[in-house]
Each structure stands twice: as C-alpha cells, then as structure tokens.
Amino acid sequence: MNAREHFHALLDSLRPLLHADEGFTLDYRAEASEFVRFNRARVRQAGQVQQVFATLALYLGERHARFELSLSGVAKEDRARLRHALERLRALVPSLAPDPYLRLNREAWQSESAQANAMPDATAVIAQIVDAAAGLDLAGIYTAGPQYQGFASSWGALGWHAASSFNFDWSLFHANGQAVKSAYAGQRWDAQAFARRMASAREQLEYLGRPALSLAPGDYRAYLAPAALDEILDMLSGGFSAQALASGASPLQRLFAGSARLSPLLSLDERITGGLAPAFTSEGPRRDLRLLAAGQPGERLVGSRSAAEYGLTANGAGAHEYPLSPVVAGGELDEGDILSRLDTGLYIGNLWYLNYSDRPAGRLTGMTRFATFWVENGRLQAPVETMRFDDSVFSFLGPHLEALTREPETILPSGTYGARQSGSRALPGALLGRFTLTL
User: Fold this and answer.
1) Domain of 379?
2) What CATH number does the domain containing 42 carry?
3) For this protein, what is any one GO molecular function term (predicted)?
4) Given this model, what pLDDT does residue 249 score?
5) Are residues 32 and 64 both part of a single domain?
6) What is the pLDDT, as a whole number, of residue 291?
7) Per the domain annotation, does 292 fall within a domain?
8) What is the rounded distance in angstroms from the CA atom of residue 293 to the CA atom of residue 270?
9) Which of 39, 85, 243, 417 has the fewest CB atoms lying closer than 10 Å?
10) Residues 196, 240: one domain?
11) How far apart (Å, rounded) are the C-alpha atoms in residues 218 and 123?
C-alpha cells in the first residue's frame, strides 16, 4: 500500500467513528528516505528510513485537543491506533476550557499535488561524490527520497502533497582544521552542476592553507553567499507574521510602519508553485504572496488565530506564520563577476550563531563561519579569522545593498532530527557596500 492509499484508508476508517457533535482534523506526514554519511571522502554509513506520523485533533464546540501518533504503514494496525487515539481524545476534550480564538476553516477545500520527479540513482551519485572528493578530507551527508503530507477534516477539506528531493551537505577540511562548507540540493541531480560546486570548494580549500588575516573592527565591503543570506532570512522570517507585527515583536516593525526602508533591489515572494512545501496547511489552502515588493512591505502571513484576534483575513499561513517556500528575486550580478565587483572586502560563505542585538531596530549579530576570505583587487587573498558582526538589516539590506546575483540558488533544510524537514528556499548572493564587524 502506497502512502496516499494508506492516508485514505485511515480517513475511511475514522469518519464512521465520529459522533454527530464532533469534528476532526487529521495531519499526515511520511517519508521514504535514503541516508548516506561520508567521512574522509568514504561512505561510512548508508541506510533507508521509512516512517509515518499522524496528528489527530478532535473538536467539540470550542473545546479541542490533539493526539500525535507514530504509525507502522500497515493499514490494519494503524486503524486500531487511530481508534485508540480517538477514544483518548473523546475522554479528555469535554473537561477542557473553551478556546476563545478557535477559528476553524470549515470549507470543503481540495488540494492535490504530486511532483513525479525521478530521484537520481544513489549508486551513481555516491560514485560521483567519491570520485570528486579523491584526495580530500570530506565529511557530509546525502539524503534523498519522497516526502508526503496529507490533511483532512470532517468538514470536507482534503489535501495531499508528494514531492521528491535530494540534499548533499558537505565540508572539506584542511590539515589545519579549517573547513569549506558547501551544499547541493534540488529535485534533479546535475552532474556538471555538482562538479562546479566541488571545484569551487576545492579552490577555496587551497586558500585556507594561508595564514589567517585578523581584521580590525569596522565597516567593510562584503559579499554574502546564498548560504549566508539564508541565515539572515531565517532570522527575518517571523517578521512577516501578523501576530508578531500586531504585538510589536517583529524585526520588520519599522518597515511595515513606514519608518524604515529596504533596498528596492529586494523582492521576496512566498511562492507555492514550484516549491517543495504543500499548497496547504492545517488552516486551509496557501496561495502565492508578495511579502516584499522592491523593498516595500507587502502582505502579511495570517493564521486563523491572528485573524480572529486582530480582525484580519487568514491566508493559510499556518499557526507559526512563517514562509515555507520563500523566493528572493535575482538581480543583475553574474556569478563570474562577484569578486571583481567586490574588488576589496570580505567574501562570506556562511554565518552562524545569529541573534538579535536590537529586535525592534532589525539589528542582528552573529559570527562568520567556515571559509570567509579577504579579497583584494578582485582576487582571494587569505582566510579571515572568525569575526562577529552587528548590523541592521535596514542598513546592509537597505542603502548598502549594491547587487544580487542573477540566478537564485535552491536551498533545502538539512535538518533530519526526527524526520527530514520539508520546504525550500531560492536565494541569490548579495553584494554589500558596507557590513559592520564589531570584534
């Protein structure tokens, strides 16, 4: 029985069990993933994971509770587990207090998407990785396979999403302990594209053998690679939340209030089409949203609770009100011209340990990570000692954003704790006229 049939078998068994005054929602998540771990450029562990999870919620008026289940994938066994979960909820829900902000989507919406992308042959991919890393100290993990998500409600809503993807996340280590971190992800493995990524990482690795340069705190020209910009966007993602904006907790508060601006080069969409996240959440269908338009604030992400509390219209954003498929539009900077346009300054491949130093002002702090290089006259010179930055997005992504690379890079979440994360991002690199290092 495949995942879709398993999901529908659970639904068919659940519906007749409901009492007339009860309602339910059922969230379903499954994966069939390959995992291959590399160390010193050799395969150290390889295996497969097949797992299924479901969350059953029972509603009785304004009272509700949820029960999370780990399932076997065998319909007969899982129908019994689901029935037991329903009985547990039925005993609990009447004793709970009513939820004043409960706003259920009772529409009978339908959404189905199945991206039938053939996954690359694991044997061929592993062979290419091993060949490309010959003579290198490579550590990394390759994950690939289909992921499934389903949703249904007793009011007739039904959503199904299936998509396959791969993600190879790796680091090349120098004998001095320094490393270059890289990633290649998507839905179709391109041997030439991977070879280019590996060649770039090899080139940067050679420079790590040079004595590291210690910079004084101050303002520098800088290039943020897509992976570094991804860390910035991750911190800002909650800034589009209707709840955060209404409560004053958004780092983009000043932007939406009209007292600060971002660069007109910056446009950001929550793009459903082509993304790896489903076109629905437990709160209803999602749609494409323009979150930033040429630096100006666009739509907010509105979940049902925010809609109820603040008198807004929900747009399927989900309870957390985070973008699931953000896409930053590319610019006019060709990849081959990055160093020449930077001229003299910092090439920053990664950032980490990010936090807010002043959330209302959109001010972030964090550390450079892995391969950050000093560039002079358009040429890499030497690695840079780890530095802390502290700067406002309204500065480095405002008047000091000079250019974005032409082709956004697909970035998939690499987290596998409990299960592979879903969703996707497409981000360019960013050339900055000023970026502030503090120590």
Assistant:
1) 218-437
2) 3.30.2290.10
3) metallopeptidase activity
4) 95
5) yes
6) 97
7) yes
8) 12
9) 417
10) no
11) 49
Cα(254)–Cα(248) distance, rounded to whole angstroms? 10
Looking at residues 331-352, what average pLDDT do you find?
Answer: 96
- Say yes or no to pLDDT of 82 above 80: yes
Confidence of residue 105 (pLDDT cuts 50, 70, 90): confident
Is-contact 233 425, C-beta < 8 A? Answer: yes
Q: What is the pLDDT of residue 56?
A: 97
CB 46 within 8 A of CB 52: no
Does residue 303 lie in a domain region? yes
- Give residue 118's pLDDT: 74
Q: What percent of the chain has pLDDT over 90?
A: 86
Separation of alpha carbons 318 and 336, rounded Å? 40
Position 369 scores a pLDDT of 83
Count of structural domains within the chain: 2
Nearest to 194 by CA among 135, 275, 125, 276: 125
Kindly state whether residue 386 falls inside one of the protein's structural domains.
yes
Instruction: Assess if residue 213 is contained within a domain.
Output: no
Of 60-69, 316-325, 355-364, 391-400, minimum mean pLDDT range: 316-325
Burial class (CB in 10 A: 0-12, 13-18, 19+), 175: exposed
Q: Could you tell me if 158 and 253 lie in one domain?
A: no
Decide which of 142, 175, 207 is a domain's last residue.
Answer: 207
- 107: tokens are 């529409």
Residue pair 105/314 in contact by the 8 Å Cβ criterion: yes
